[in-house]
Amino acid sequence: MKKKIRLLHVIGSFLEGGTERLMLDILSRLDKNVFDITACSILDQVKPSMIEQYEKHGIKTRAFSQRSAILLIFALKKYINENCFDIIHTHHYISNLIGRIAAILAGSQNILTYNHNWPGMEKSRHRLIFKFLNLWTKKNIVVSETVRGYFTEVVGVHEDKVVTIHNGIDVNIFSPPAEDVRIGMKRELNIPANAFIVGFTGRLIDWKRPDVFIKAASLLAKDDPNMYFIVAGDGEKRNELEKLAKDLGLNGNISFLGWRSDMHRIYQAMDVFTVLSESGGNRFNDEGFSLVSAEAMATGLPLVAVDNAINREVIGSDAAVYCEIDPADIAYKIRLLSENKFLREELGKAGRKRAENCFNIKKTAEELASTYIEILRK
Length: 378
What we know:
The protein is an alpha/beta fold. It has two domains: 5-168 and 360-377, Rossmann fold (3-Layer(aba) Sandwich); 179-358, Rossmann fold, CATH 3.40.50.2000. It has 15 helices and 15 strands.
């Protein structure tokens, strides 16, 4: 390549969600001698600190104001034409829809989608729209083989158009802590040094199932007052969940931390981590790859995870104890780990090894860069 590849990523927002953090981590690692990168949001949801982080890494940003879909499409089309992007890469359903239509109208030749979640058994019209827009789409990036199977077998996308690139994390930042660091982190969170801490991280929305975590926590706290619970994340259900915790008598044993930019430190205070998101087609937007699973594994934490195809693919069989989406079963599996230090250590070691081998962010960025260059060469 004699000139830089002009790359546009179209995302929903510049908030602190998993997709936004992941794309910042990936795009910041693409070679700036090869790629000239712009990220734009289309839903008028902007946190200035996130834009600052993108731009600090040499990534240009543009936030479109929320407006009617038609006006948004033509504003984005105009922006694409003005900047002559070589590749347009869109994320999630809304951006995949709006972004691709705008790119098609702009005459873009290299359009890709990034599918972070399991689409589920969405309405037939959604599948028809996807198949129609796929006529102008070079590649569909998916984050797991399970999601890839859905696109090829259910939606009917040709397998050559679907590429799996697993999510990645910085395995140097997310790493097992020394014991004094763990104790210091507990002190910082105002939790006793000898407490056993169970963690939950993610957006506080229905399909992440924080409600089930809190119900399981209430069962455990009744039997063991030395067990504490951390909920890191924010979302539309936060007030409702805090009320649920209070009603269940968990006030003294649970901490709602909100969004944290230092999650690598928060994990260090935990003894067990839970992965409870729904996946497999129960609704329009289920888990496609739990990024927090990889983060927790890299930190050396044993996992209690809901038994589904996504978790089996990402976590494997050696880093977790699997459970049903049921408070009693989750509580039982957590108690099992709390009583067996050897099992916790073995699961933690296996998880760390898996994170290093499979989910290093450098590998993710390299695979994405190779996909772009291959498309342009063809």
